[in-house]
Amino acid sequence: MIEQHFGETAPFSLGVEEELMILDGETHEQVAAVDRILRGVAGLDLPGQLKTELFASVFETNTNVCETVGEVELALPALRRASAEAARAEGLAIAAAATHPFAKPEAQPIVKEERYVTFVGYGGSTVRRQGVQGLHVHVGMPSADEAWRCLEGILPWLPVVLALSANSPWFAGELTGMASNRAPVLAELPRSGAPPAFASYAEWESWVDRLARLQVTEDYTRIWWDVRPHPKLGTLEVRIADQPTDVRLSSSFAALLQAMCATALDVGLPENAALLGDRGRGDYAQNRWAAARFGPRGELLHPGGTSFVPAAELGAELLDLVRPAAASLGGGEALARIDPTACESDLQAESSSPAAAAADIVART
After folding, report:
1. What is the pLDDT of residues 340-361, one digit of tens each?
2. Cα–Cα distance between 1 and 212 in angstroms, integer?
3. SS3 state of residue 95
């Protein structure tokens, strides 16, 4: 049995993780300086913590457990501000986006921790290409069974979240035509994309235990699905969103995902499980690709399973569906910042060169 702590925090509490890049303050090249950033914030009284990531030119900020979106809106800027000040003291800068416009991921040094070194040994080039950053939102769940029911409820709508959060049009110096290059790069990892259609939390837990027993994987944290249970934290962890540049949008997507979870467990979200024998996984794969390719200008299969509509239209529908829950949870103002017709990829794509895009990301971060 996997250790679990569901129901130990307030319902739909939040924990938000931002993955941020470390750049040279002048050239905006990525710099392997995570140790200098962590040293620069050591001892500070912060509403969360900083951690290493796979690459030494990236770090992660984790908020403390937040009961409301309002707490998230205070914590995320404070963590960024402390990080930026530590970087500035070293002649560095921080940058928030889902890819660096011109850095070569394979050239980034790996953090010399066992979990990362063994990961590279296992995944090879697919891991070395993971120069991508995401926004991970943990939502507190009342119980294990409700966590799985919530996962199934929000899953068909996650490609819409990807479309609205797309923020990685550049990859290794090229404007590739993808609104989110991060999404297909992540899909190169094993155990990625949509979770299989397990019937229950217990069935998922049994599968994870079997894989660990057979030494296929160490534990469930080595499963990189777009959404997964995180029983040790008592949360559902939603990993679909590209990392926003505007910190206010990080709070907005946290508000959206919190409200989606509350709505899914209260009145339910329209989904296609009743229509499709694969519980919508085929539709999900199509929608995930289209969202990554076109962002809000794409067309997606409606989670109801009966129409093919603009992603922007689905985005507006989703915002309408969850607005009551967002208002009751205190996230209505943050939710209102999301424009279903646009994404931050649009802003990056306006830059005349990858160097100009990197400078703009630093300025807006």
Report:
1. 999 999 999 999 999 999 999 9
2. 11
3. strand
| Residue that the structure tokens 């924990």 belong to | 15
The residues pairing with 192 across neighbouring beta strands, listed in sequence order, are 224
Structural domains present in the chain: 14-364 (3.30.590.20)
Contact by Cβ (8 Å): 235, 138: yes
Label residues 76-107 b or e (16+ Cβ within 10 Å = b): bbbbbebbbebbeebebbbbbbbbbbbbebee
Is residue 253 within a helix (H) or strand (E), and if so which, with residue range?
helix 247-266
360 to 97, 172, 282, 288: CA distances (angstroms): 11, 17, 37, 27
- Which of 104, 92, 162 lies closest to 134, judged by CA? 162
**177 φ/ψ angles, rounded to the nearest 5 degrees:** 95, -5
pLDDT digits (tens, 9 = 90+) for 196-247: 999 999 999 999 999 999 999 999 999 999 999 999 999 999 999 999 999 9
**Identity at 229, one-letter amino acid code:** P
